[in-house]
Structures are given as structure tokens and as C-alpha cells.
């Protein structure tokens, strides 16, 4: 485990920086939640771990424009994103899979994807590509959002985000409430995205999901990214698991 500020440039050797977050602060009213959060990542998968109430969802909201930062910068490639609207941030290449999925109960799977299908022709991610990634969705394409299982809803939330054909996907607690087999599908999908050149930033509390999704693990404590560890170190150290995830080994 290393102090995040001491992470050497060598750790990103061979990986150009795609997302850079520097001194990000955000909160709600007079309550500051994020306290000068800084990190960078390339085209890779990275997990942000931590106990409940540490600011992980607030970080997702600040990155994706749902919450306006009070200080700091967010840069994706050459584009400054901090302070931009969610729509502009999505157009510049950052898509979001929110906690709770936020689907429309009465719309079918086809209708959810059709809302974002315009302009996807000729691009990597189209509705057909989403159905190829998640065959179960193809079988349920005429079912409404409320008729899907939790795992199917999560597949649809991920597929919807992919149709933006962005450079990075931010996922907030994607394994929450999912059966182990569905978690396996999610993990495989993340690895496939990275292999195809899409960065994935995942907030996760599930130890198995976090350590199989990404080797880089950034630890959030009280609104700060306090340390960086690896999936290998985390799996091998029950004390780290208890300290950062509340896992009772």
C-alpha cells in the first residue's frame, strides 16, 4: 500500500493519462464532502473503494456534472469538464452508470436503447452491439424496465451508457444486489471494454468484484483519496479489507 501522493509516474508507464482530477472539492450546501481529491488514470480499469459515507457517490456525481465542484479541475484528454453540465460532459466522452440504475419502468429494453441510438451508426457501440455483449438483454428486449431482474437492469444500464461511445465509463456500485453469475458477466464486460480502448472507473464495495475488476485500488476515507493499493495486496490482507471495506474476515 502506498500514499496516493507518492505514486510515481512509472506506475503509468506505457499508459497515457486520459482522466486527470486535481484538488476536487464538492459538497451539499455548507457541508463539504470531497476534500481536494486528486488522481489520474489512463485506458485501464480503476476501482475506488471505501466504506459507506466516505464520499464515493459524491465523487461520481462531481465527475459527471450532477454536482458542481466548488474547487479543483477535471480534465478528460484535452477537455476541461469541471463545471460543465451532465449533457456536455457526456458529449465530451464520459458516460455514467449510476447507483440504482435509474431506468424507466414502463419502457422496454428496445425503447431504452433507442433513445440513445441516434448517431451510433458506424460507431463501435450500437443497440445490436449491446445485445451481442449481453445476450440476455436480446431475449428480453420487449420487456419493460420493471419486468427485468436486477442483473438484467444492470446490463441495460451499462448498455445505455455504452451507446454514448465515450472514452470513459464511470460506474457507481455496479455489483450491488447482483447474483455471482451476473457479477461475473459484469467483470467480463469491464475487461472487454478496456481491451477495446475504453477506460472504466468503478466505485465498488464488493471485495470480489473490486479485486477482479481492477488491479489499481484507490482508497477513499472521509472524502479524500487516502491511499492506493492493489487487488493482489487487498486480497491477501484481511486487515486492509476490514479497514477499508468493513469486511469481517
From TrEMBL:
Pfam families: ABC_tran. Residues 19-247 form the ABC transporter domain. Keywords: Amino-acid transport, ATP-binding, Nucleotide-binding, Transport. One of its GO terms (molecular function) is branched-chain amino acid transmembrane transporter activity. PROSITE patterns: ABC_TRANSPORTER_1, ABC_TRANSPORTER_2. GO terms for biological process: L-amino acid transport. Belongs to the ABC transporter superfamily. This is Amino acid/amide ABC transporter ATP-binding protein 2 (HAAT family).
